[in-house]
Design brief:
The complex is a heterodimer of chains A (about 325) and B (about 160). By secondary structure, chain A is mostly helical. Chain A has 13 helices and two strands. Chain A is rod-shaped. Chain B is mainly alpha-helical and about 160 residues long. Chain B has helices at about 5-45, 60-100, 100-115, 145-155, and strands at about 50-55, 55-60. In chain B, a hairpin with a 2-residue loop joins strand 1 (about 50-55) and strand 2 (about 55-60). Chain B is rod-shaped, with a radius of gyration of 24 Å. Classes of the chains: A mainly alpha (about 325), B mainly alpha (about 160).
């Protein structure tokens, strides 16, 4: 018979589900119970070093004392339970879609993102502004005078690059939001697996025996590698915002970030303390890899893009046209 | 001053008014984009993993993402301002010339009225690529402004 908690923690949709946190917390309680039972089993077998040895019975006062002492086990898993839903970052990506020129983004049941494209134009800026810029140039083509020349050469002609640059910034925001969503999904996937296998490790514990077949892999480690490889592919770590477009272009699917699991580690041990150490190692591994992935996004994409916009502010914003406040003598109307 | 006067000048000035209308439309495009980017401010909460710090909980990615978002929003806002002021300047220029030439002013008004009476001027309309044309795709290339220095260096080399 499968327990309700086993059904919940084993759900395929859990990493993207709204009740992820509550299910992980529930499973953490089960892990605590299993750890207590394993510890009692080890203690009663005589393997535990105690000068006042006597057997602990199920649910007696000392059993509950051990259970209380294991309160930090749920606390540790609470860190994983509180990993935000990837949907939040995916929603952010979708909310800048109109500006970045890509289609509407939604996350599917398996974490896939349909229609993730990186078109040069599209949306509010790409279509309307690009078309408006071309129309302005056409209208003022025959306009004469110093102000007209300044307007054409110092203002209007920069429209395409200005729009591209700002679209590129929006795409950078979109790409990093997607990559962040991928990291969170990978982390939640790992957290779910670790929660399942941690309980299994305690449940299958036998004093003196080691279940070497009980291992867990880390999707979040693979996700970090994927993102890092994308960032490293940018020539010379260029700070040009337009170049960052391609950094995460390969990350067009959250599922692509969770497909590869790396660095499997064993959870089994010949002592309960050994299992505890392994489980904690797994928790720390997930948190550490999230931090590494976030660092890649900051150092490889967001920070350089920000620096580029500060350094090259003039390239991102049209310089104030000289015709504003210019004397009328500098103008000559167009000739039709 | 312009060599033109009367109807010819009025028709010419209309081009400036038309350019001003396009500038207004572009300004609106940047304003709309600005609004969309600004709206992410409400949606970013809870999208990133928070960190325990002495002063509360913050996410390092969220901080940088928000910083870049704000930067983009500022750029979009500046473009809106520039384009709006450009539209005003173009209209003022046309009006100044028209004011000095009654015939031109009358013609300009005629042209504008004629334009406004069109069933659907649709300044926002843009050319939709045919299905045979591949959609434009961003390549990993430097923006226009960045390319110039490197080209100069190559020539010097």
């Amino acid at each position: 018979m499968t327990d309700y908690s086993d059904e919940q923690i084993g759900r395929g949709d859990l990493p993207l589900a709204d009740d992820f946190e509550s299910v992980i917390r529930m499973q953490a309680g089960e892990i605590r119970n299993s750890a207590t039972r394993a510890f009692v089993k080890e203690f009663n077998s005589g393997g535990h070093d105690s000068s006042e040895y006597w057997k602990i019975r199920d649910a007696d006062q000392r059993w509950w004392q051990i259970w209380k002492d294991f309160s930090w086990l749920p606390d540790a898993f609470a860190l994983l339970a509180e990993i935000p839903s990837p949907q939040g970052s995916a929603d952010l990506a979708a909310s800048v879609a109109q500006v970045s020129g890509s289609g509407e983004l939604t996350v599917g049941e398996k974490g896939e993102i349909p229609g993730g494209t990186y078109n040069a134009t599209g949306g509010t800026l790409g279509d309307r502004a690009m078309d408006g810029g071309a129309s302005i140039m056409a209208a003022v083509q025959s306009w004469q005078g110093r102000a007209a020349i300044n307007f054409r050469t110092g203002f209007s002609k920069d429209f395409p690059s200005i729009i591209r640059n700002q679209t590129a910034l929006a795409q950078t925001l979109r790409a990093t939001a997607l990559a962040n969503a991928g990291l969170l999904l990978a982390a939640r996937t790992d957290a779910q697996e670790l929660a399942v296998k941690a309980k299994a490790a305690f449940d299958s514990f036998e004093p003196g025996g080691v279940d070497e077949g009980l291992t867990t892999g880390f999707a979040v480690a693979g996700a970090v590698s994927t993102i890092a490889a994308g960032i490293a592919a940018v020539p010379g770590g260029s700070a040009a915002a337009a170049a960052t477009l391609t950094i995460l272009a390969g990350v067009n699917s959250l599922a692509s970030l969770t497909r590869v699991k790396e660095e499997p580690m064993g959870l089994g041990a010949d002592t309960v303390q050994g299992i505890i150490n392994n489980v904690f190692g797994g928790v720390n591994k997930i948190l550490q890899k999230i931090a590494e992935g976030e660092e890649k996004l900051i150092e490889g994409v967001l920070s350089p893009s920000y620096a580029a916009t500060v350094e090259h502010h003039g390239m991102f914003v049209a310089s104030r046209p000289s015709l504003i406040h210019a004397p009328l003598s500098e103008f000559r109307p167009p000739v039709v | 001053m312009a060599e033109q006067s009367g109807a010819a000048l009025g028709a010419s000035l209309y081009l400036l008014v038309e350019a001003a209308a396009h500038a207004d439309d572009m300004a609106e495009a940047f304003l709309d984009a600005n609004r969309e980017i600004a709206a992410t401010g409400e949606g970013s909460s809870g999208a990133f993993l928070q960190r325990e710090t002495a002063g509360g909980t913050v996410s390092p990615v969220e901080a940088w993402w928000t910083r870049l978002r704000d930067q983009l929003q500022g750029l979009l806002g500046e473009n809106y301002t520039n384009l709006s002021e450009t539209a005003v300047a173009l209209r003022k220029t046309a009006a100044a010339y028209a004011a000095a030439d009654e015939d031109a002013a009358a013609k300009l008004l005629d042209v504008i009225e004629e334009y406004n009476s069109e069933p659907d001027p649709d300044l926002e309309k843009f050319e939709v690529p045919s299905v045979d044309e591949p959609a434009p795709v961003v390549k990993a290339e430097m923006p226009d402004g960045y390319a110039k220095p490197s080209m100069t260096r190559r020539r010097n080399d």
